[in-house]
Structure formats: C-alpha cells, structure tokens
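Incident log, entry 3
Record: GlsB/YeaQ/YmgE family stress response membrane protein (79 residues)
Problem: checksum mismatch between cached and fresh output.
Input:
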Amino acid sequence: MGIIIWLLIGAVAGWLAGNIMKGGGFGLVGNIIVGIVGAIIGGFVFGLLGFSTTSMLGSLITAVVGAVILLYLVSVVKK
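Fresh output:
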C-alpha cells in the first residue's frame, strides 16, 4: 500500500509543480518521476532546515517544494 501512496503523492506533486513552474503537467509518468525526485530534494532541504514531515499533507507540500526546486534547476541548466 505504501508504494501506491508514493505514486499518488508523486503524481499530484509533479502536476502541481508543473503548473506552478511551466503552466502544465508532464503526463502521468513524468509527473510521478518529477514528484518522487522532488520529494527526495524537498526532504533533504527541509531536513537541513530542521523540519520534519509526518503527515500526508506535509509529505505533499515537501514533494511540491522539492519538485519546484527541481524544475527551476532544470530550467536554469536548459538555458
């Protein structure tokens, strides 16, 4: 059941980050990848700041923030 939650949070986080940064999503698989990688980045950043997330909403926020950071870094490198 845990992997399904990871995939759902990843899909929603990737979609939200895509809408925030670019104006659209990346398709289901792309959103999941962006969201999961974003969750790793967000967890690292929030961990450095001393924050911990234990709720599903906190995990979603962490994943979205990390995904936005990821998409920003990708856009900078792409230019």
